[in-house]
Amino acid sequence: MSQNDPVVRLPLPTDGPLDPPPEWANLRARCPVATVELPSGDTGTLLTRYDHVRALLSDPRFARPTPEDDSARIAPDDAGGVSTSNSSSLSLPTKGEGHQRWRRHVGRYFTAKRVTALRPGMTRTAETLVAAMVAGGPPADLKAALGFPLPVYVICDLLGAPVEDRDRFSYWSDAFLNVDRYTREETGAAHADFLTYMAELVSAKRAEPGEDIISTLIEESREEGEGGLTDPELRDTGMALLVAGHETTANMIGKMVATLLADRRRWERLLADPALVRTAVDEVLRTDANLGGYGVRRYLTEDFEVDGTVVPGGTTVFCGLSAANRDERAFADPDELDLTRSPNPHLAFGAGAHSCLGQSLARTELQVTLEVLLRTLPGLELAVPVEELRKVEGLTVGGLREVPVRW
């Protein structure tokens, strides 16, 4: 960075709802360590090259901002969402041995083997949801009919939470992840309600254990004593898994289907060779231009050097996952969606000690969605031109408001 470099204002504009910002390529080429200004007026640093983003995400010294950090705010003080405060207000440890202890406890429930065991149930749920959508006749909003409810059913089953509360979960998630839709007061009230709800769910599981993650973690914590998770950690684990387990995947299902239908040749290729579903899912994840308009945040507790540029401690760095996933230094023909691309070391789920715990679950839900749609609705197509799709503005995880389809 130098004083002559321009200040980039986030989020960057795009030409279409599924298109990447044209500025990404310029930043990677000319200013890969850029100064950015946020809607709050605060500034930070944006990384857009693959190696730079991966190196910072993999560095165990740095994590998401905590309430004690003087980190850059995304939203103005009078707005709500995760970005008004300096960090998540959950009590889960974000780095060091405490974070690794938490990941060891929770991560064992999201192994590929455990998730594979869930696949038949996911498939039946997806088939039921698609059948209901078909019964309603075209056109339909695939996000509302399938994209949102499928991950909700899955995560509620895992947590032992009543699926009937899905509208409450959706509101709470949106309040945390949307930068400008809610006021600080609305977000605070949503957070308080969610805390109460999850604390009561933990108490209920302690009184009457089930086969869910929360019940199992309670039993393990009882057996391990001081080495187990505390009640606040159990509560906040449930909150974190519920938000991450349905909001991001629900949006990704809609974006995946829209991306594949935007060019009919992609859909026809998958119909001809369904074995490509696995690589297709990862390629859609790599090329997703809407993983979030702000990237993943890291707060530097000390200086960090990026290709000779020293980013000083105290800086909030925004790791542009989507920009890095299109870096020509890491991927051949990065702007081409190659359904056969393998290996595909994209950063959609992050990297290092803070990579997404639920990535096997998310991949499986996306694969199941695609398999069911290809098998039951081979004639599926978008019901509107691609350019008429509308993005959810202000949502840090990115998404489309609706995905109108017909068949």
TrEMBL record:
Keyword set, alphabetical order: Heme, Iron, Metal-binding, Monooxygenase, Oxidoreductase
Region of interest: Disordered: 1-24, 60-100
Entry cofactors: heme
Transmembrane regions: none
Basic and acidic residues: bias regions: 66-76
Family classification: Belongs to the cytochrome P450 family.
UniProt name for this protein: Cytochrome P450
Lineage: Bacteria, Bacillati, Actinomycetota, Actinomycetes, Kitasatosporales
